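Section 3.1: Structural characterization of target chains.
Under the original work plan, the team committed to producing a structural model for every single-chain target entering the pipeline before any wet-lab resources were allocated. The record below documents one such target. The sequence was received from the expression subgroup and is listed exactly as submitted; it comprises 385 residues.
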Amino acid sequence: MERKFIMDTSGKTITCRAAIVWKTGSTLAIEEVQVDPPKAREVRIKMISTGICGTDDHAVKGLLSVNFPFIPGHEGAGIVESIDEGVSSVKPGDKVLTLTIPQCRECSSCLHPKGNFCEKQDVLPSSGLMLDKTSRFTCKGKKIYHSFRASTFTEYTVVPEIAVAKIDAAAPMDKVSIISCEVSTGYGAAVNSAKVTRSSTCVVFGLGGVGSAIVMGCKASGASRIIGVDINEKFPRARALGVTDCLNPRNLKKPVQQVVMEMTRVGVDFAFEAIGLSDTMIAAWDSCHQSYGVCLMVGVASSNSQLSLNAPDIISGWTLKGVSFFCCCFADYKTRDCIPQLVTDYLQNKINIDPLITHQLPFDQLHKAFELYHAGKTIHCILLF
């Protein structure tokens, strides 16, 4: 019988491929990088799949406050390669998802029943470093920064234990990476954050990956009417997911919010913005019923953008909820506690994420994946290692 030799890499530096953004405005370059072993309470992961998310595109373009050079990516699924001292929640061989928003279970946010924006996050602001203020990546002798302590555009990554969610061993790793961001963000925004009610009317601005997941959440919650707004021709897929009315602002003679108000006569019960632009945020807000409407900002805006609302309008009772910064802050989910359950729900056919995945490409076709994203030809593309 042939015996397969498996090299033990624990405690050793690993050389692998990763995508690096060297400076603002530069394109992604696939380079050979060195990945250090994990330190105390850290986990090194062999990535299996990672998704292309709008947040990654913003970061690559320099629209977010990040340090260069860095390895982008935050939506990932992989297998634990090694751990260091103090790690007790996962072990080598476990299937895991990376989490942009960690759950330390010790800070004021984690301990509060409604809080989930852990104080040990690296989003606001983003240092690009691990909790000990150092990096685990080097390339050509130069320190490479992390992306929100996730960095999934690499064959191996190192993350804090508090930013890892152990998932069911039966999970298909070529698909479930989208649950670490897109599904928890979009589906959760409707089901968990907004708590969309049965027979309600909703509007979703942006029908990409997150917006499509919002549509799924609205339909699952029993919404009777779901208006989808997008400038790209994603409407056939959107209708299959549950959209009842489709609007392309480029084909309208009036502002889209005015059209939505005329369609509903009073405004929608729930409005979701999944693009990250100030103009569409205002349009979503203006589409709501002025007394009881709820507007959720899910899209990630650039770091220097501002949102201006008409102050007197606010007193009438409608609600503006910032469920977002870097993927809805996971739709108010306590990440390590709740994200694994979404994977289980998928395995038990309680939710179906398959329609959200329109493309799967090998990692070395990263640039093609971004071309599809920019052309609006994909709902969600997953890169496979």
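The chain is about 20% helix and 20% strand.
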